[in-house]
Amino acid sequence: MRALQLVDPGVLAVVDIPVPDIGPDEVLLKVGGAGLCHSDIHIRHLPVELFPLPLTLGHETAGTVVSVGSQVSGWTVGDNALVHLIWACGSCPACARGDDNVCESAGRMAQPPTPGLGPAGGMAEYMAVPARYLVSLGDLDPVTAAPLADAAMTPYHAVRNSTRALRPGSAAVVVGVGGLGHVAVQLIKTLTGARIIAVDVLADRLQAASAHGADIVLAADESTAAAILDATAGRGADAIFDFVGAQPTSDLAVETIAPDGIYQLVGIGGGAPRITAEPRLGQGWPYGASVRTSYGGTKADLIECVALARAGRLKIDVEPFPLTEGITAFDRLESGSINGRAVLVP
């Protein structure tokens, strides 16, 4: 089969490798679509080998079951399925209470094994998957549904953990309305009564955010903080969802988060919000505000995202690429010329 692999640090290649064998608790998935994420860009450019190479990339995978292991129940050939990207142990206290995305087997790193970051991922024609990490897609198209695994689940988890701040009439800011951000706009619109302010550097992404339900769209520039404060009567945003995570966006959050607000720092752009232990005088980090990071989401989050998609309440903007053009898709995403989510189709 063909697969897109990281063959050396910084080097991608479409290669021919054997179709994987499956164990008794696994299924073989014929991949229908594999989403491409900014995390994959980071993996591409890691200067050292953190995972055994070559590594088949891809942690947003959907497809059709074509073979079932001898100990697998509940799945049959022909079923459409989505791969949960959190391959947690399933038995530790965190998993038992449903917090599998902070599985204790991962230690303080709090990043359970993830396909494409150790185990072979889904940017291939076939993928072997332990059956307990599958979620039924029903009648959803695997190509358009693949990004639900991360582009929907990750913002869903962040929004779900911010509901105390998202009361009717509150203000939510979404910074970066690309692959995850345009989904976050829809989730906030569907799940809360908050007004939504979308921020991005690209006009076409802001246009898409408006189409998906944003109430205000703002170009990211030196006037953005003042515009957010103006739109919130000077108090600031009750919740900020930062899908960029660079220093300018962290600075924006510090300047515009409301007292007792929640800053969800989702992007991994290296930003560091300046939070200092000093008197609060109406500038900088206010009293009561909190900052939170999270890795992906739980299997329950993913199941609920699939339910929203099946009900027509959630739509991911997708640009498909043949698997053989996967390197082009990586380059396009890195250049910022992908709106929504790139999906590789074998």
UniProtKB/TrEMBL annotation:
What InterPro entries would the database entry show? ADH-like_C, ADH-like_N, ADH_Zn_CS, ER, GroES-like_sf, NAD(P)-bd_dom_sf
State the needed cofactors, names only: Zn(2+)
Where does the Enoyl reductase (ER) domain start and stop, copy by copy? 10-344
Q: Which family does it belong to?
A: Belongs to the zinc-containing alcohol dehydrogenase family.
Pfam families documented for this protein:
ADH_N, ADH_zinc_N
Query: Which Enzyme Commission numbers does its entry carry?
Result: 1.1.1.1
- Protein species of origin: Mycolicibacterium helvum
Under SMART domains, the record lists: PKS_ER
Gene Ontology molecular functions:
alcohol dehydrogenase (NAD+) activity; zinc ion binding
Keyword terms: Metal-binding, Oxidoreductase, Zinc
* Reaction equations catalysed: a primary alcohol + NAD(+) = an aldehyde + NADH + H(+); a secondary alcohol + NAD(+) = a ketone + NADH + H(+)
Q: What is this protein called?
A: alcohol dehydrogenase
Q: Tell me the enzyme class.
A: oxidoreductase
